[in-house]
Amino acid sequence: MLVLLRHYSRHESDVQTANGASIKAEENDLCNWDGLGFSLTPTDYMYLMKCSKGESAFSQGHLTPYGNIELSPSSGVLNYGQGLLEGLKASRGDDNRIRLFRPEQNALRMQMGAKRMCMPSPTTEQFVGSIKQTALANKRWIPPPGKGSLYIRPLLLGTGPILGVAPSPEYTFLAYASPVGNYFKGPLNFAVEDNVYRAIPGGTGGIKSITNYSPNYKAISRAKAKGFTDVLFLDGATGKNIEEGTACNIFVVKGNTISTPPTKGTILPGITRKSIIEIASWLGYQIEERAIPLEELINADEAFCTGTAITVKPVGSVTYQGQRVEYKTAEGTVSEKLYRTLTGIQTGRIEDNMGWIVEIN
Ligand SMILES: *Cc1c(COP(=O)(O)O)cnc(C)c1O
């Protein structure tokens, strides 16, 4: 009820500002587009779809006002963490067209994760359709060109009641959206984490399971309290090789070679990672996917991270057991070149020859 009221009152205030001819002004007043960070701004609609008990597939979903959902106290997701998340962006280019970036890749990754977590998943068509609808229903929340994007967060949750440790009898897919800023507030300063491991061989590090994140809060808050932006995880098997950040993949540059750890189950196969590997090879770099000892990062010319939220972001420093190494982050870096190319394709400034862009106007 509270949610419905809040939703209603937001529309009421829009009506007040939308009087007469200035619908455009209303859209500009909606949000402080210049002050967007990566925090939640609730939008108008979310998408909901269910896979009911006894069914093996999701039936037709629908848009509904953004708000709270009702869950059984004994739902699989609340009791045993049976859930997956995804993340992708809808962006407005200088031509004012709205684009999604490789949404079918998010659909495929959710399907892969769903198999691992014994859940049914939406088909690629259902997934991409839901993302288009969510973006278009919240069109007024897509920031103006250059100001950011509409971040879309799909979830796949075991929502049916279950007491024993077993897959839930019912599932919910939902997608909500929030405008976010460009997230480019300086380079990353990593603290290498040599005490907490994010993933182990045979575990769930390679899928976007909701259970992969909160176990790291302690390490992250410890690092943040010391002024670092994020932690860099090492591999759980040997503690010698670099893996990734909290929600971003890492690349190391040495000469003309760009290396990144392989996605063999303990590292999240980022869609930005995959795209950057392709872009870097067209640009003539040598790409290596292999285990990277921490010393190699320490001796690198440059390092950068990739992810939907941050796109491509340079690593400014890495600190391991009190020793800090710094990297170049200014103009002329490899990461800057890759950032420009990737965001150029995402915003339509650079022609998409790869079929990565889905226009949804
Ligand atoms: C989501 C995520 C990434 C980045 O993946 P993208 O598809 O590029 O957004 C990297 N690492 C982890 C742990 C993640 O959750």
TrEMBL record:
Keyword list, A-Z: Amino-acid biosynthesis, Aminotransferase, Branched-chain amino acid biosynthesis, Pyridoxal phosphate, Transferase
Any one GO molecular-function label of the UniProt entry: branched-chain-amino-acid transaminase activity
Record pathway: Amino-acid biosynthesis; L-isoleucine biosynthesis; L-isoleucine from 2-oxobutanoate: step 4/4; Amino-acid biosynthesis; L-leucine biosynthesis; L-leucine from 3-methyl-2-oxobutanoate: step 4/4; Amino-acid biosynthesis; L-valine biosynthesis; L-valine from pyruvate: step 4/4
PANTHER family according to UniProt: AMINO ACID AMINOTRANSFERASE, BRANCHED-CHAIN-AMINO-ACID AMINOTRANSFERASE 7-RELATED
Gene Ontology cellular-component terms listed: cytoplasm
Name under which the protein is recorded: Branched-chain-amino-acid aminotransferase
Catalytic reaction annotation: L-leucine + 2-oxoglutarate = 4-methyl-2-oxopentanoate + L-glutamate; L-valine + 2-oxoglutarate = 3-methyl-2-oxobutanoate + L-glutamate; L-isoleucine + 2-oxoglutarate = (S)-3-methyl-2-oxopentanoate + L-glutamate
Positions carrying N6-(pyridoxal phosphate)lysine: 208
